[in-house]
Amino acid sequence: MKILNTALHDVRTGRFERTLSALTAAGAAVTAGEIYLSHDAASFGNKMMYWPLVVVPTAIPAGAAGFFSRRAARTVLPVASAAIVINGLQGCYLHIRGIKQRPGGFTKYNMESGPPAFAPLLASLVGGMGLLAALLRREDLQLPGDGEDH
Fold it and tell me: What is the reported pLDDT for 146?
């Protein structure tokens, strides 16, 4: 119970940097897998479909590093996260453009059967988690090997 109370106190006081860094890494892994499957199903018809598979996975090592290192959480993680946010916004534009280019243009049918218009924004949310992690204070977790970097 003490662990749960400590965790809730940390969240309430903005001490969530390590946990959110780890969640960013996990979210990036799941999101990259989903992007791969979706874009593979579309046969990578546009070369731009490879970009999120390059950009999103950068948050996996960056988020893991942010969990273990305060410095990485404040430097590497926000850079990777900002790139993911930008790429997600770009993807949303490209998906909407793809829907508009289908026969009939921007119709309900094309919205349902074409590229998912707002799916890239979900990747942007993963990037947003990493940016938020960089702004928060660090939890007082005592992990083996914690040194002056804590």
Answer: 54
